[in-house]
Amino acid sequence: MSRVTVTYRVSVRPADVAAVAEGIALEQSVELPASAVHDAEIKANIAGRVTGIRQHGEELFDVDIELATATMGGNVAQTINMLFGNSSLHAHVELVDVRFPEDLLATLTGPRFGARGFRDVVGVQDRPLTCAALKPQGMSVESLAQLCETLARAGIDVVKDDHGLADQTYSPFPPRVQACQRAVDRAYAASGHRAIYAPSVVGSPRRVAEQVRIARDAGARALLLAPSLLGLPAFAELVRDDVEVPVIAHPSFGGATRIAHPLLMGTLYRALGADAVIFPHASGRFAPPASECRELAVRACAPLGRLLPALPVPAGGLQLDSLGEVIAFYGSDVMLLVGGSLLADAARVGERAARFVTAVVKASLARDEARA
Amino acid sequence: MSRVTVTYRVSVRPADVAAVAEGIALEQSVELPASAVHDAEIKANIAGRVTGIRQHGEELFDVDIELATATMGGNVAQTINMLFGNSSLHAHVELVDVRFPEDLLATLTGPRFGARGFRDVVGVQDRPLTCAALKPQGMSVESLAQLCETLARAGIDVVKDDHGLADQTYSPFPPRVQACQRAVDRAYAASGHRAIYAPSVVGSPRRVAEQVRIARDAGARALLLAPSLLGLPAFAELVRDDVEVPVIAHPSFGGATRIAHPLLMGTLYRALGADAVIFPHASGRFAPPASECRELAVRACAPLGRLLPALPVPAGGLQLDSLGEVIAFYGSDVMLLVGGSLLADAARVGERAARFVTAVVKASLARDEARA
């Protein structure tokens, strides 16, 4: 009997925790009171069961529940349904951990390139990668392409669309993607540095599949996808069936989900196919706890069945003058995403981007020397 | 300039609310500090702007922000991206209302049948509809079909799959749906009462489209879909392109979203194509505030551009002996979903289902007489 062990963090009085835990186990499996389950097989093999309760705070508990893998029906949507379908309607319950058994892990795509494969595409193995964003939205295709070329010539490894760029009238998807890819190609010809351009692809499943084809035909060598925005099942299917280049996952709309961010962005985005995962760093404008950032980065790379590791991408307001601290915090196997900080002065974007690249190389060398 | 007015509920100290509101307006549009937006057109037409701040509690404010419709790019995923993409990563921000301009409303599918069209399919206009669920999962196809026939013969209007039924090995989708549809057909032949069977369809976009075809070929006359589980963009596309029967929306995984439930389930599920929306009633095992339930039901039916009203479906532990109160609370234009309460005694399911049907008819008549 294969089972998935799920941990829920529950705000509840100590006297009630046993009953609440039992309630979640039933809600997330048979969805009936135990007394209304008449079939012995179903009681034994399908009904969820509580296997652990740990006190985490005065009125806060971690509850472990085993759910039958068979209920998850071999698909992502149904797996989410069983992990956190109806119990999501209980405001006092948060999904904080999932331990997948080997047979379920084997059905997941995971990263197809992984951290190392993504680095192979970029062509850099031994230092943190640099990433910058094309924004603000509202810019014309020509202006975006010009910015893209400036960043690429400055030596940025990966230039990604702002996740807000979709298929708007002021910068429609096909000409934008074609123009930005040509921009990095021009920068390569001029400077010898080959940046990767990652277009943002956002929409309903069929529209997104079409945009993936357009990006491929334009020669784009990575994609930016927001799994929670597309819907986790749609994201997983798209990566598995349609995408042939590394996938950078963006956390947009992910924060709206009452699933602990390290689980959602570190484990689940990776398990569903992300090769790199963007997440807010503690020092930026989203300011999550540092311990959460570290756990997220660790989960992105930690052993998980046969799944490849994904590259952590701290972001959300990184400043040029504190990159050394960020590298010290995560180590060198990351990609650093600096967005707005490069764009504050329109006349000096290239200069600031070059400073970013130099700062990363220097900080990384300093760190390696200190460790040697 | 068409703009969408979005209301966020923000937990913040009074001294900080103006800056936080401005921060959301920028985050959800240009994603740059105002000082880094150099283009006057973008400043004027693309950057979000704060249009109202109302105190809601000691450290709780409702903030109105206008976002340019042009940024939403005419698609559901990008609209969610602009409404609550990065700001979802701020735990102190909840999305509580959206007022769509006419031009954006015109791009939304909305219910294709609506409350009245759904009632036409069921064949009942003048009283609350009755709905029961096939569960627990783990039952064989034969047992589910038998339960389905029992409920249909008892006079239930709509028999739906438990939302946990997917495509599991113990009750695979195709034979289950075919057997349950044959069960309601047999009940019709035997009793003259024609129940609607609504299979639960859950999975990734291509898999779900295939299941919709299987359900159609089997003759199913409604579908149960969980928009938040499929992903809102995938749900909207599926309903628009593939589904030809009324859609009952299930709230599974919807509670995980930090979007006020009346907005999510009452307005958004409807706007994206639900003809009926299931939600937890105040007296059941999910116990949301009664005011929230009422607002959700009102939003499902309230005028919204040219969109048809959706039928509210209170659920989540309704008891047979308190249906009169539920009808008094919502009025008669609802469908009442009674699940586990019918199934407590395996030998008396038909009897209890018949009691449910009779109770609804009586309570509805009593209410009509009291009002006449």
Keyphrases for this structure?
homodimer, 372 residues, alpha/beta, 4-stranded parallel beta sheet, 14 helices, 12 strands, 18% strand, elongated
Q: How would you describe what is shown here?
A:
The structure is a homodimer of 372-residue chains. Chain A has 372 residues and is of the alpha/beta class. In chain A, 41% of the residues lie in helices and 18% in strands. In chain A, the strands form three sheets. Chain A has a four-stranded antiparallel beta sheet with strand order 2-3-1-4. In chain A, strands 7-6-5-12 form a four-stranded parallel beta sheet, sandwiched between helices. In chain A, strand 6, helix 7 and strand 7 (196-198) form a beta-alpha-beta unit. The radius of gyration of chain A is 22 Å and the shape is elongated. At the A-B interface, helix 2, helix 3, helix 8 and helix 10 of A face helix 2, helix 3, helix 8 and helix 10 of B.
Q: In brief, what are we looking at here?
A:
2 copies of one chain form a homodimer. The first copy, chain A, has 372 residues and is of the alpha/beta class. Chain A has 14 helices and 12 strands.
Could you give the topology of this structure?
The structure is a homodimer of 372-residue chains.
Chain A: E1 3-11, H1 17-27, H2 40-45, E2 49-57, E3 60-68, H3 76-84, E4 93-99, H4 102-105, H5 114-122, E5 129-134, H6 141-153, E6 158-161, H7 173-191, E7 196-198, H8 205-218, E8 223-225, H9 227-230, H10 232-241, E9 247-249, H11 261-271, E10 276-280, H12 290-301, E11 311-315, H13 323-330, E12 335-338, H14 349-371
Parallel strand pairs in A: 5-6, 5-12, 6-7, 8-9, 9-10, 10-11
Antiparallel strand pairs in A: 1-3, 1-4, 2-3
